[in-house]
Write a structure and sequence with these properties.
With about 210 residues, this protein is α/β, with parallel strands linked by helices. The strands form two sheets. The chain has a five-stranded parallel beta sheet with strand order 2-3-1-4-8, sandwiched between helices. Strands 6-5-7 form a three-stranded antiparallel beta sheet. A hairpin with a 5-residue loop joins β5 and β6. The protein is globular. Bound molecules: BIS(adenosine)-5'-pentaphosphate (AP5). BIS(adenosine)-5'-pentaphosphate binds next to α1, α2, α3, α6 and β6.
Length: about 210
């Protein structure tokens, strides 16, 4: 099963990806996570990525496409994978089309008025990547799944978020039409209800796909 998770910053791609990976046993490939790991390790890719991510801009397509192509050629991706945050431009989607066919594009659609609060209140587990919102943590600083420390991402501040949303509207939102035309889109609406509600709808679709 080859999946793409599409959605604005804060839509809940990472939140759903952790659940999908666990239930369906597919590798979760998040370009954002790959860049953050490279930044932490101060690799040449990390140095380039940081200069864009800190401003809320996209890392250039050449860099991003090469990373994804390398990652999905590994042995654990032979039976499928889930791309979270890739593609994000039409050029990236076209590059992906040249190397593989995906089965489904899950587009998480969310009211933009919810996004700023979701992103600025987000805390992420440094070990397993699970995401939480401050409102539901009740002061807890450790991950409920694995006990890892929770942290706040550097790009989760109001100024950078605005830039990320502008970039999404200009460069990523056109992918909805791109994949709709190919008959691959599954739209799922996420609202104030807990992530499990969204996951249930996604799981129903994936179960049908696997039958
Ligand atoms: P990336 O890490 O991919 O960030 P993003 O797309 O901006 O998405 P987020 O991770 O912010 O949000 P999400 O949709 O995963 O939401 P989450 O589940 O955490 O990319 C970071 C940067 O890397 C980019 O800005 C770019 O510079 C670069 N980059 C990455 N990929 C690239 C590419 N392909 N090309 C070029 N550059 C690239 O949820 C958010 C919050 O909401 C959490 O607190 C969560 O607990 C909460 N929440 C989730 N669901 C619900 C719900 N149903 N109800 C209430 N709260 C919820």
């Amino acid at each position: 099963m080859k999946l793409i998770l599409l959605g604005a910053p804060g839509a809940g791609k990472g939140t759903q990806a952790v659940r999908i990976a666990e239930k369906y046993n597919v590798p979760h490939i998040s370009t954002g996570d790959i860049f953050r790991k490279n930044i932490k390790e101060q690799t040449p890719i990390g140095v380039v990525a940081k200069s864009y991510i800190d401003k809320g801009q996209l890392v250039p397509d050449e860099v991003t496409c090469k990373i994804v192509e390398d990652r999905i050629s590994r042995a654990d991706c032979q039976n499928g994978y889930m791309l979270d945050g890739f593609p994000r431009t039409i050029a990236q989607a076209e590059a992906l089309d040249k190397i593989t066919n995906v089965d489904l594009v899950i587009n998480i659609d969310v009211d933009f008025s919810l996004l700023l609060d979701r992103i600025c209140g987000r805390r992420v587990c440094k070990d397993c990547g699970e995401t939480y919102h401050l409102k539901r943590l009740n002061g807890e600083t450790k991950c409920a799944r694995c006990g890892g420390d929770l942290y706040q991402r550097k790009d989760d501040n109001p100024e950078t978020v605005q830039s990320r949303l502008d970039v999404y509207n200009a460069q990523t939102a056109p992918l909805i039409a791109y994949y709709t035309e190919k008959g691959l889109i599954f739209n799922v609406h996420s609202d104030e209800r807990p992530p499990e509600v969204t996951f249930e709808k996604i799981a129903q679709k994936l179960d049908t796909l696997l039958k």
